[in-house]
Design a protein that fits this description.
Layout: H1 2-33, H2 39-51, H3 55-74, H4 84-102, H5 112-136, H6 142-154, H7 158-180, H8 189-217, H9 221-224, H10 228-232, H11 246-255, E1 260-264, E2 270-275, H12 276-284, H13 293-296, H14 302-310, H15 314-317, E3 321-323, E4 325-326, H16 331-341, E5 345-349, E6 359-361, E7 378-383
Parallel strand pairs: 4-5
Antiparallel strand pairs: 1-2, 3-6, 5-7
Length: 387
């Protein structure tokens, strides 16, 4: 048993180190393309461009600053094990130096098509590196640690913090380069492309090869359940059935101070979702974006619509098309799905990885079984913002 655990740990450490190396190779190629680096590397590269500090050393310094930031932010809540992020940063920095040194053997590209190709290839490498680095679950990089610390302190969902963090890093880099270099410096089209493509490429790679990778790493469902995604989810979920009255559903939404409830069948399979927006939309007969609760009462038919609503069942107005995410997904992937679909919450389903980007449509016949992609146990709901 101990030999098996030791062997598994060795495999995971190897995957972690190889993943970091592949990521830094992607960063080095993006630097070589001179079209802008990914958001997470923008600050170290800016330090290189502005003060001439070698990028690997700048990366180590930046990780140290982020760990210090976590200590100041969390204070007594800071855990000593998070100091290991410094060692992860040192490894990442040395890999950055090594990969950048490899680039000197290649001529600087002058053809725009070649530079674009290098930029796109770099995003694929970064995604492939993340594919191995993240599930190895050894030591998080300081950037991720800082975002988790901010999320915990201000009580905001990690995806929201990640977007703000990336935007802040890019903004600081852009302003610094404009002031000191009178150019975009580390920021360019590659920065935007990386922010969009890396997550998409990671999802595609995971969909195709995730099961094989997990088998190699020995990742179990129990370990998946300990992912950062689960750490910030609302795991106490209140559900309703299609036959629940709107009156009862509204009481749950009001008493529990939530903005919506998943609709499930007798086997806890997700078959719909009822939100406060669905209720406002019915009462006002317009998109809820343009109306609030106080304005509803001024509508001429408010009382009639309210009486009609109170006599209805959940099945009458709940959405039958639900965008859900998988418990095994990375936080950045979930954030991108929410952003792309303009939603602030999504049910989190077990074993949902391959179906995460599908719109899971329930049939009009409520007695008819849904397709197998929806026959998955719902166990909590992710909310991008406070209910």
């Amino acid at each position: 048993m101990e030999n098996a655990k030791g062997s598994r740990l060795f495999v995971r450490i190897s995957a972690y180190v190889i993943g970091l190396l592949i990521m830094t190779l992607g960063v080095a190629i993006s630097v070589k393309s001179n079209l802008g680096v990914s958001p997470v590397s923008s600050i170290p590269y800016t330090m290189t461009c502005v003060i001439g500090l070698e990028m690997g050393k700048a990366t180590i310094l930046f990780h140290g600053i982020l760990v210090l930031f976590q200590i100041l932010l969390l204070r007594r809540a800071f855990q000593a094990k998070n100091l290991l992020q410094i060692f992860a940063g040192i490894l990442f920095g040395y890999f950055t130096t090594f990969c950048n040194s490899l680039m000197v053997f290649f001529p600087d590209p002058t053809n725009l098509i070649v530079r674009l190709a290098m930029m796109l290839f770099s995003t694929g490498l970064i995604a492939f590196g993340l594919f191995w680095y993240v599930p190895a679950d050894i030591i998080p990089l300081a950037g991720e640690g800082a975002m988790l610390a901010i999320s915990k302190t201000i009580k905001k969902p990690f995806p929201t913090v990640k977007v703000a963090f990336d935007v802040t890093m890019v903004s600081i880099s852009l302003i610094t380069c404009l002031v000191c270099l009178h150019s975009l410096g580390s920021v360019g089209i590659g920065t935007i492309v990386a922010a969009v493509l890396v997550g998409m490429e990671l999802r595609w790679i995971t969909k195709k090869c995730g099961a094989q990778r997990d088998a190699i790493l020995g990742v179990t469902k129990k370990e998946t359940a300990q992912s950062p995604l689960l750490a910030i989810m609302k795991q106490e979920v209140y559900t309703v059935s299609e036959e629940t009255s709107i009156r009862d559903a509204l009481r749950i939404i009001t008493e529990k101070k939530i903005s919506g409830v998943p609709v499930t069948d007798g086997s806890r399979n997700l078959i719909g979702f009822l939100s406060d927006g669905d209720i406002l939309r019915f009462l006002a007969d317009v998109e809820p974006l343009f109306i609030n609760a106080s304005a509803l009462q001024e509508l001429p038919n408010f009382e009639e619509r309210t009486k009609e609503l109170m006599a209805m069942r959940v099945r009458d107005i709940a959405k039958k098309q639900v965008i859900s995410v998988g418990a095994e997904m990375e936080l950045g992937e979930v954030c991108q799905i929410l952003t792309e679909n303009h939603i602030k919450k999504a049910p989190v389903l077990e074993n949902q990885y391959e179906q995460h980007h599908k719109i899971c449509a329930a049939k009009n016949d409520v007695n008819k079984k849904t397709d197998t992609s929806r026959s998955i146990r719902l166990f909590f709901c992710f909310n991008k913002s406070k209910s």
